[in-house]
Every structure is written in C-alpha cells, then in structure tokens.
Amino acid sequence: MQQHELRPPKGATHKRKRVGRGNASGHGTYATRGMKGQKARSGGGVRPHFEGGQLPFVRRMAYKRGFRNPFRVDYEEVNIGDLARFPGGAEVTVAVLREAGLVRSGKPVKILGEGALSVALTVEADRFSKSARSKIEAAGGTVRWIGGEPPARAADADEAQPPPGGGTRDATGESAVAEEAGDGAGS
C-alpha cells in the first residue's frame, strides 16, 4: 500500500449538513428550525443560561461575598498561659508541644499572649504575637523563630523611626519640626 492509496474507513467522514437548499435535501422549507418563534428568526435566540424570564439558577443560589485569599497561612494557636506547665529553663519546641497535646495538626504554630508566664522558657515556633514575645522575654525567656525571624512590617517600622527631618511626633501624630518651621516663615 502506498501513501496516496490511504483512505479513511467507510463512515468515518461525513458531508457538512447544508440546510435550506430545497426540499429534496430533506432540510428545506423550515431548515431544521421548526415553525416560527424567536429561535426560528434570523439573528434570533436567547443568551446562554437564559431561563425564559424565571429567576436564573445563578441568582437563586446564596449570594457569595468576598474572596478566598490563596496566600493565607492558617496557624495552630497556643497561648502563653498553656506554656506555664513547663518547668523553668525548658526548651519548648513544636515537637514538645505536640507531645503535651497542645498542638495536634501539622499546621505552623503561633504563640499568642493570653495568660501569664512566670518561668523562663526558650520557646521555638513559627510566629509570635507582640504580647507573647514581650511576656516571654519579661519572664527571662527567649523566643526563636522556625526559619528565622520574619522581616519587620512597614507599620511597625513607621512607629520606630522618627519623622523625616528629625524631631518628635505630638499626640496628633504631626511632626513638631514642621510646626516650628511654619512659625518662622510668616515673619
């Protein structure tokens, strides 16, 4: 068999249906459109998902609001008060928390500041709240981040830095230097 002798099997190909080409074709007169009506007209028909005017399916469903953040990290939370059960000087890691039954899932662990801590502990976790960190350090302990300390957030950095041009901020958050410069300009 040569390449020019190849043919598709019988019945594998079909001629395109050409409607409205006379009654002898079997698709003349109404040309497969039925009798009259919106769908029989030229340019007629309705948009996809149109249900004839009844309340559409998508509007019958509950109205979903907002969106789901794909980058959200869900933490397993442990409070400072729960760490008080460990003896002073102990090193509290995620494995130790799991053995104690304080952590159950495989989620990253965040230490929160609810409760009091009176013993010095070395606590290792993925994240710490500000209050938890300050309470651990006030009790003489240390905090250690898994994967290193996260970079400071922009809001935290703004509080720590003085306003541009030096000086201090007053109770309203305005720079005291700006007021002094404004007083001298008028004279």
Task: Please give a structural write-up.
The chain is an alpha/beta fold. Among the domains are: 76-145, Ribosomal Protein L15, Chain: K, domain 2, CATH 3.100.10.10; 154-179, no CATH class. Helix content is 21%, strand content 11%. Strands 1-3-5 form a 3-stranded parallel beta sheet. It has a 3-stranded parallel beta sheet with strand order 2-4-6.
**CATH structural architecture of the domain at 76-145:** Ribosomal Protein L15, Chain: K, domain 2
Number of helical runs?
6
Strand order of the largest sheet: 1-3-5
Given as residue ranges, the uncertain stretches (5+ residues, pLDDT < 50) are: none
Counting DSSP E segments of at least 2 residues, the number of strands comes to 6
> What value does the average pLDDT take?
86
Distance between the termini: 106 Å
Summing up helix and strand content along with how strands pair, one would put the structural category as alpha/beta
Blueprint of the fold:
Layout: H1 57-60, E1 76-79, H2 80-83, E2 91-92, H3 94-99, E3 109-112, E4 122-125, E5 127-128, H4 130-138, E6 142-145, H5 154-160, H6 176-185
Parallel strand pairs: 1-3, 2-4, 3-5, 4-6
